[in-house]
Protein 1
Amino acid sequence: IGMRGARVQAVSNELNGERVDIILWDEDPAQFVINAMAPAEVS
């Protein structure tokens, strides 16, 4: 992610200011979806 989000900001700038979400990777597909939906609770 870099200092003060520098890497994310660089990607966002390349995408004309589009928002970029960072999702915690997990090999378990179910857990990955839960991570992607955070902060919502997924049961």
Note: The first helix runs from residue 6 to 14.
Protein 2
Amino acid sequence: MIKGNKVKHLNKKVGHRQAMLGNLVQSLFYHENITTTVAKAKVARQIAEKLITRARENQKATLSPAEKVHNLREAGKIITDKEILHKLFDDIAPRFATRPGGYTRILRVGQRISDASEMAVLQLVERKELAQLKDDRSKVRAARKAKSTKKPAEKKAAEPKEKKAKKK
């Protein structure tokens, strides 16, 4: 009788599963948005959230340099690409500085055509693209408000001229 088995095996051997999940998490941090099966997304989400938490803890000023190096090396066991590792610690972790957890979301997108597997999109909650879109939207809204306030003033100035022309 097997008891206490908390690992989702995903029908893979240990080495293949660890490599696959590490690659999924690396892709998530690189693209900030990946499409995979629901089961893989749920397991990758756990790993990603733990790594983001470790990177957030590394931002604290109370940590000694040895503890910071330790956090970096522990994350480096899963994320083998140094560029992505530095992106996690320097770019992604500061974005989630105020968020206590829940750094990722899973959105179900239907079934894969070939084998009808349930597919999902795993994405970071606070993405750079979304922040840029919000900034762009606020600029557009401000420009629209500025234009709308200018137009009535121009119309008022134009209306008296038309009335004078009608009286003649």
Note: Residues 127-168 form one domain.
Protein 3
Amino acid sequence: MSSIEDKKQDPTNPAKPDGEMIDALNKAAKEGAGEQPNDMQDAHKMGCPATHLTRANGAPVVDNQNSLTAGPRGPILLQDLWLNEKLADFAREVIPERRMHAKGSGAFGTFTVTADITKYTRAKIFSEVGKKTEMFARFSTVAGERGAADDERDIRGFSLKFYTEEGNWDMVGNNTPVFFLRDPLKFPDLNKAVKRDPRTNMRSPTNNWDFWTLLPEALHQVTIVMSDRGIPKSYRHMHGFSSHTYSFINADNERFWVKMHFRTQQGIENLTDAEAEAIIAKDRESNQKDLYDAIEKGDFPKWKMYVQIMPEADAEKVPYHPFDLTKVWPKGDYPLIEVGEFELNRNPDNYFLDVEQVAFAPSNLVPGISVSPDKMLQARLVNYTDAQRYRLGVNRNQIPVNAPRCPVYSNHRDGQGRVGNNYGSRPHYEPNSFNQWQEQPQFAEPPLKIDQYADRFDFREDDSDYFSQPRALFNLMNAEQKQALFDNTAAAMGDALDFIKYRHIRNCHACHSDYGVGVAKALGMTVEDAIKAYETDPAKHLESCLPPKA
């Protein structure tokens, strides 16, 4: 037996407390000839002290092999405190998974400013060239559950948490510059459509494509997901985007609209369906392994940050809706401006503690970075923090990976899981006579002019240009890329009902005749039959079921 197994506790030399023990293990692991221990045997050889099993209250566990019973074959006794505690805690180890983005990987890193953008924003994270800020990144698939394969055709989440001196700034984005929707009222429906069918408990191409084809504004995102870029080779080989329009506020209290881009320095690399299927057959955690292994080897991945800046007044002049999440800003109009670079250089010591419990929220903003009238963003400002209160609790920001690195005086007190001094004996109200909880009007933003009636406006009446931007994207593709788009679409549609396939062909044809013809051919159909099928489409009465274009 190893010394870990047979060593008895010396009462004159008690075990270190849990926190010190963890620090000792981590220190020994990091100092052990430059290598990480593969298991506790290796850790012990590197000089880690033995740990001694206790109950949650610190009391020693005498026997972890045999339950307390009445005789060798008798029933278990209720007074077996360790068995009761062990089973009860085990039953509660799993917290609710994220409704979307459940499967993910993460790492710590450093953001460095490489260019001066202080004329656009007063955010201190960007205050000087060369400034460094600690950060955490999480990448994910979107539709799949915790056990989903990494290499599925799907959007990838791209979320960054910057621990700035003014508070945590969360950039909660994706690896695509657009999204399926303009209006968040349909967001729950989208998630249900791409999740499991309530009857079969299987993913349904019919449900998925029925919903997508009834939102013609989704074609831009659908085209990206069905293109070569629908399956990144790894998290290291994809770009990231804010997707939403945000705002910058500068020292003169001027507002600029902004979109953020994070361009991989490893180069864009993608997988075909066949390549992804072969990888999934061997490894369902391929992207997680790739990111973890690269960082462990010192091959730290990097992304360059750029922004597109639009003067506030331009929003009223551009021919497209600047706050529409289904559209991009042409780079010819608003070119990329370099900001900085982030590097991921440290793997979490514990996946659950950091990757599973990290909570990103678009509402986590700092002075100089703010919101816009983007409808989807407006809804996410509320929805994300609401979801985190359900998943992690009201004191989620006390979890180390979520905790700001600056002083926090929110006067949010008590609640389940509260730790720390809970703001001690300070008065728990404001205003008060003791100079506590003073507001900070110096960080006020400029007023945003809104002079409209409140109503449920049909956004299609405001802007029904669903296809010009996906058409421009299609025109950028070469023949090989277009064929991949057609083939990937046909494979993804699978056994979806024919009238849904015909509807998608009509949408593609309205975007570009070659797009419609290519998808139709890949599906073994024709554009002519798709046009005729409009008359029998069961959703024909819906405004979003577009009539065919010749």
Note: The chain has 17 helices and ten strands.
Protein 4
Amino acid sequence: MAEHPSQKSQEPVGYVEVRGASEHNLKHISVKIPRNKLVVFTGVSGSGKSSLAFGTLYAEAQRRYLESVSPYARRLFHQMSVPQVEDITGLPPAVALQQQRGAPSTRSSVGSVTTLSNLLRMLYSRAGDYPRNQPILYAESFSTNTPEGACPTCHGLGKIYDVTERTMVPDDSLTIRERAIAAWPTAWQGQNLRDILTTLGYDVDKPWRDLPRKDRDWILFTDEQPVVPVYAGLTPREVKQALKAKMEPSYKGTFTGARKYVMTTFATTQSQLMKRRVARYMTSKICPECHGKRLRKESLAVRFAGLDIAAMSALPMKQLAATLQPFAVRKTTAGGDHPEKEIVAQRIAHDLVSRLQVLLDLGLGYLTLDRTTPTLSPGELQRLRLATQVHSNLFGVVYVLDEPSAGLHPADTEALLRALDRLKEAGNSIFVVEHELEVIRHADWIVDVGPAAGAAGGDVLYSGPPAGLKDVVASQTRQYLFGHAEEHSAKDVRKPAGWLTLTSVTRNNLRDVHVRFPLGVFTSVTGISGSGKSSLVSQVLVELVSENLGQALSEEEEEEGGELLENAVVETLGGEIVGGMEQIRRLVVVDQKPIGRTPRSNLATYTGLFDHVRKLFAATKTARARKYDAGRFSFNIAKGRCENCEGEGFVMVELLFLPSVYAPCSVCHGARYNARTLEVKYRDKNIAEVLQMTVDEAWTFFDEEPAIHRALDVIRAVGLGYLRLGQSATELSGGEAQRIKLATELQRAQRGDSLYILDEPTTGLH
């Protein structure tokens, strides 16, 4: 392997040397990687880059570092599993900056991610201007996430949540018997409440709007819970007669008002599905106590530079730095008669300004400290976390980054490269998994993994300076890096079938925007990072179309959970659709959230492919003779799975202060099924062997099964032929998860009049 010229004079200790790495699809590889350089790991999606950089190098560095930490403290860390590698020498401690998937908490903000909020709270606590006779507050009193600081009325949310008659009774022309009270539970419990109202003498057959106001208010908002006899199946007239005759009731029922039911269910249920169901009947308004500032009035009474901490946190970081700069250089007196306060103000302001400058250099000056993380693009969040590391002044550390250019406009890449250079110049090693050509060209050293994905990858094709990759014929990266990739001819541009028009859109940095989206064509929304693309498309457009269709925002959110209160109402601060909705009947959002949070969810189960496969096995001669149904071939159902590992394929061994060890099941040896189930075969393969096939292998194997073949065709078309059918959802990258969602959608028989919204679908792609 070639060596970087600047490395030739150095001793071997200047390298990280990996021997015998076999993590995931890596083929017992060995490689030397220089330290104190910008090293980029390249290769097609699924080739094994992340397995080498994160699964091997970072995992081993973390394991070694944690060995020096006390066992008691070690249990507080999220510890990765021990990597499959013979030996690694010359490996320093490592810090990983990975793309964060899933739903971030709405209580997390730009200020908390960058730790700037901690400093700002300290500034207000120690150097703020207090009202006369108000005692000094600790820094915790300026946090919305602590009991000392959060507004007691809204609990630090800035909004209060409640229900209204309109949200709980969307159609007041219906009767109670016709389920006018939509917020009440369905099925038996809802019928029970209606029967109780009949016993109490309310007319359940009169349109809701014709009921007296007093009756409507009591039914919806009472806190009373009367226990009354219920006569199931009787008409209101028969119920009156039964009560008069004091007949024995079917049972005793307890009434619960609609508001009490919604609020209690939301607060106490463990079911995310139930939580989401009742959340749609809740509404929000700005808290009258704190006026949306989320803090106690005592905390908001403290000023610095004439602003309370909420107003200071709402300033764009560029403006915030300008506000604090005079205090940082001691040109402005903060405390007058209190020199110690002036000194504290100068020191904290100086630290804040220096940290803010790093963020400004990365092009993030438009963000505010109170901006919540769910409203940030992945690229913005990655750069925020990178800025924290640039300012940390660590020395001799390996930084392992996962596509830091993801979500960045080419105009922003230069700022990213400057930040990486600063980390390198501080004496650190930078290991980057990347597809962006500008970042690859900027590298001191390239490790190219391939040549293809999955089982066809896992080899190190090249390790050396970028120029040397030009001679590696097997590398797919060199074709693009050195201009040998085939040119694509220009396509005919389709004409729009109509226009979706939005007006007066206001959200984050969008102010009264008017926009028209063409329909019936492929539209790309572009702009530099932070320009408002995500705010416009992923937030406002999704919410407005969902509201017009009366459609839930996302099927996955029921599993993800997330901050349901924040989603209780449409939060568009301004904007409406004024045309084009007549051509849209369905909205499909394909994002990068994980397709499942447990190993039981996999490619085959998520796409529905496994249903076809299980039916195929159930139709075999052996299965019919034994009366096995399709459920027998599910590893989630007791009758077919291995009882020892309960269908997991492995057993977890708990080690008190060490990472849990996962060992293959001693009974099924990782097959997940019991012996009787594995005796059933289709074309000489049992169900476990089919799950071990890649999509490409299964495509050939099931060539006589049209339904399965069609599903596999689509998965291959989105470039995922290398994945195993039984590959756990937890092992998939965000880009792979998004493409699986897209493939699942493309399998639908009828897809007309649908609006598809994709969030950077090329993330993770070569």
Note: Residues 1-13, 554-572 have pLDDT under 50 and may be disordered.
